[in-house]
Amino acid sequence: xxxxxxxxxxxxxxxxxxxxxxxxxxxxxxxxxxxxxxxxxxxxxxxxxxxxxxxxxxxxxxxxxxxxxxxxxxxxxxxxxxxxxxxxxxxxxxxxxxxxxxxxxxxxxxxxxxxxxxxxxxxxxxxxxxxxxxxxxxxxxxxxxxxxxxxxxxxxxxxxxxxxxxxxxxxxxxxxxxxxxxxxxxxxxxxxxxxxxxxxxxxxxxxxxxxxxxxxxxxxxxxxxxxxxxxxxxxxxxxxxxxxxxxxxxxxxxxxxxxxxxxxxxxxxxxxxxxxxxxxxxxxxxxxxxxxxxxxxxxxxxxxxxxxxxxxxxxxxxxxxxxxxxxxxxxxxxxxxxxxxxxxxx
Amino acid sequence: xxxxxxxxxxxxxxxxxxxxxxxxxxxxxxxxxxxxxxxxxxxxxxxxxxxxxxxxxxxxxxxxxxxxxxxxxxxxxxxxxxxxxxxxxxxxxxxxxxxxxxxxxxxxxxxxxxxxxxxxxxxxxxxxxxxxxxxxxxxxxxxxxxxxxxxxxxxxxxxxxxxxxxxxxxxxxxxxxxxxxxxxxxxxxxxxxxxxxxxxxxxxxxxxxxxxxxxxxxxxxxxxxxxxxxxxxxxxxxxxxxxxxxxxxxxxxxxxx
Lengths: 346, 257
Hints:
The structure holds two protein chains of two kinds.
Chain A: E1 6-18, E2 21-27, E3 30-32, E4 36-40, H1 47-54, E5 62-67, E6 70-71, H2 76-80, E7 83-86, H3 97-107, H4 112-125, H5 141-152, E8 159-163, H6 171-186, E9 190-195, H7 198-204, E10 207-212, E11 215-220, H8 222-229, E12 233-243, H9 245-257, E13 260-265, E14 273-280, H10 283-296, E15 301-306, H11 311-319, H12 339-342
Parallel strand pairs in A: 4-9, 4-10, 7-8, 8-9
Antiparallel strand pairs in A: 1-2, 1-3, 1-5, 5-6, 10-11, 12-14, 12-15, 13-14
Chain B: H1 5-17, H2 20-42, H3 55-84, H4 87-92, H5 98-128, H6 135-162, H7 166-182, H8 196-203, H9 206-219, H10 224-249
């Protein structure tokens, strides 16, 4: 569990690359010690700009951000000394993977012996043994990405920023890295993790900030986002005996009044059926109601299942569906969150 | 013991970017020039034109001066590659100041140039013997190369901050390198017969001042003109360094080709 200690807090943070052309605006989030905060959004949502602002690579044009007790405008080296940053673009030196690791540790002032043993640990952990003596440009895309993450973990830090670190990784490598990051977070490392892979955010992040067109749309746990934004879900109910047509008609009328619509039944018309498939906006309310209704009508319920709410459906619900053209989503209003939730305060 | 950030960056610059082949080519080319060009031109160029010495003895100080370009080009290219492979951004996201990174590049250029001076001296030794260098002469040679190195490093780094394409950067760098050398007194002296326009261009070129000062130091005839030359180099080095520092503050760290 993350602690309640805030290690990062932004208030109305923004960056404009030209007058009135904002890459990110009104960003108010918090990060606790040991927490993994996901920045989720489409390409161009403002994730990378946010990372660059928080790591002092870009000066904000509005708002404030306090990272580890220091203002990002003035923190400079003292602040960066406690950060780790895996950039979205590949960065490398023209030496072997192993030498890259130790050289990077040297740059950070890690003692030689510690660097050597840590390099071995990282090579094993990130499955770089076969690539140890190869130059980074001779690695596959996945190996290069693993190398990038491994290299950043050569030094100590309080907050780790990872800008789409799993792009190009196979499923096993991705899972392995995510598991390792989760472990490190349990050990007190705070992580800011940008991704557009929803499943990853769901798996790794304690909370997720959804960015769209440079604005924060929502900030919550993955479960919270699913509950709030996943929209209508499929509910399937199988009764132990057929429902008489009259009872079925009454049931459907009741369901309609509760915001559910019938998708299919095992057979229709006047023939008694024992299975209904519905689409319900508030599935979590419909299910107990259905159970009570069946009980009241002496109809045994064999099985009720509810389609699992996914982060994907929540995400699509937030940004305006999957049939939008690039950048043609709804204008973010910033009204989805009350101010205290936006700040991510406990 | 933890080295200061600038020195850690210098060590990294040497360790990561200077492969043996690059070093051999960078130092080998002027060394071969001394041996081949010096030998061949000594047989056809009258010593009247080269101040009473052999052409090789004339050329060696020129090649020593040339090392300030070698160092500048090395750190300019190093910066470009760091930018191209996002290492500038990576370093800036770490415990370093931009000024330290720039200082590391300039120091790398300086060290490279000074090593080059030593190599050129060693290569030239069998041809010209040990030059009668006074302590002041040694200081003048080292200071000249150091200032020239800072100038060229500053110039190429400034260029590197502004260009976004490798083609453009390396074309301009090659063009500059070639013309700066040929429009200087590295290979030939400015004489009364030199066309006026060329003579003006020669004296607008910092490499001319460097070559002349080093030549005078080798000949043990340093004078007021050399002090002037050093002054010009110092001003140019300061301007180029200031330009690089200013360019660093506003440099776009985004992707380049």
